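Holo prediction — zinc ion.
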Amino acid sequence: MSSLNVKKYQDLLEKKRDELMHATPVRTPAAEPGSKSGDWIDQSSQESDLHVRLALKQTDSKLLRAIEEAIHRIEHGTYGVCAECEGEIAPARLEAVPWTRVCIDCKAKQQEAK
Ligand SMILES: [Zn+2]
């Protein structure tokens, strides 16, 4: 653990968290009846865009939770330890996915299990 630059990951996590928290909820003016939105082509593209945004929002809230948990682990000195095998998570993996809870081996096993 001592070799791990935890502060760096904490910065990454907090930055990402702020990014997610300040992402404004989507309100499309086109959803209002009587708005002067264009023809049906525009309408349908706006609707599909809304669906994409909703899907993204669900992912965001999951991610936000994972990030908060990771920050919590940093505060408790357990960051970078795999939740499954308790081995160290490779720094390269932490840099790519700072909020991860498991090492690459356990992640692979989880995906095989599905
Ligand atoms: Zn593991």
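READOUT: The radius of gyration is 19 Å.
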